[in-house]
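Annotated sample (chain length 282).
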Amino acid sequence: MDRGPLPPRSVILTQVEEWNAGARKRVEDSLAAEEPLEIRVGRYSLGITMRTPGQDGELAAGLLLTQGVVTRREQIAAIREPAAGKESSRRNRIVVTLARGTRVDPRRLARRTYASSACGVCGRSFLDVARTQNRKPLDSATKFAPEIVRAMPEALRAAQDVFARTGGLHAAGLFDARGALLALREDIGRHNAVDKVIGWALLEGRVPLAGAALLVSGRGGFEIIQKALVAGIPLVASVSAPSSLAVQLARQSNMTLIGFLRGERFVVYSGEERIAPASARS
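Output written by the structure step:
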């Protein structure tokens, strides 16, 4: 399983006052780091997003894919991350060079100057997002046994190193049909975590992710479904509720969408044919 190295600036230590049963004491606490990152594609700026430092190259690659700027790994020639120790303004800038001959519509690079860590497709219209959706049919041959689906949240939580220290990060994990955790990424923003794990898959040459499942620690919003579609992921699950637009998009795209994945219970909102009988194995 690829969880990536623990980013050196992902956790910030601070002194706090803790109250417990009427008693107070000074203790050291761990905070999830949040810093701005400017992503540049050649001379164009894709904008500034707030993220947890670490796997910035994967974040940029995933964002370029899910925003429709690139469609395959070969279109990315290089990703230049700043060297450690640089001043903050240069430390939080990443530059992507596209392969020669790759044509880019400047409108796809038009984002807001600033996007919060909670924003997945900020500054993009609904029609712009729709144009980035994967038009190829999703994998319908792979089946996921319900007991494997139920085990995914525990596997995700056990691999969340930064969350274990801070309690303040979202996570996105890619699983295969046997329940093996292929990759996990954490971030202060749930959309960033999804872009990071999709970026990892893109850079590893695994996109489209046929036969894979994406599990997110937060709710299943429209933007997450859109990103999963672009990456060719046939099943998306969340521990919380999906939105109405997410359900609509999943049903239109024949994606399996699962919500409220907790303990022994989960709810299938679309694509129930990919959930195999309890006795079956993929």
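Annotation: The radius of gyration is 19 Å.
Annotation: Residues 190-203 form the longest helix (14 residues).
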